[in-house]
Design the sequence.
């Protein structure tokens, strides 16, 4: 069961992805079809969002997100050393929760909407606090 802190981290990663002009998602290959579906869903449901999603297959159980013009993120069982990288604790449903949040925010018009991402979107992200509450 995920905590509200994990929900907040998922939401922050989704917002970062949508604010970026492109993202490279590195994964072990099992997400290739899911990434294609996410890209198509965004194109269909949020046509104002123009950015590329590139899928890179690596030998790791982690899922890494490298944004072109935003801070990076990772879904993993352990947090990365850098506090510049948003960490989302890896659980069975994490990928689905993240993609749902990306689609939900995209449909609402994020990042071009006012208030559609909730009050937390207007506050600066505190990665240290997030990790302390999750870990």
Sequence:
């Amino acid at each position: 069961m995920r905590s509200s802190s994990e929900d907040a981290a998922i939401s922050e990663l989704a917002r970062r992805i949508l604010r970026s002009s492109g993202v490279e998602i590195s994964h072990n290959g099992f997400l290739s079809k899911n990434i294609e579906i996410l890209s198509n869903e965004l194109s269909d449901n949020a046509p104002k969002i123009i950015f590329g999603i590139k899928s890179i297959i690596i030998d790791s159980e982690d899922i890494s997100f490298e944004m072109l013009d935003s801070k990076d993120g990772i879904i993993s069982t352990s947090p990365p050393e850098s506090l510049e990288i948003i960490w989302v604790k890896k659980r069975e449903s994490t990928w689905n929760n993240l993609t749902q949040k990306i689609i939900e925010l995209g449909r609402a018009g994020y990042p071009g909407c006012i208030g559609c991402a909730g009050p937390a979107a207007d506050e600066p992200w505190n990665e240290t606090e997030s990790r302390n509450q999750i870990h």
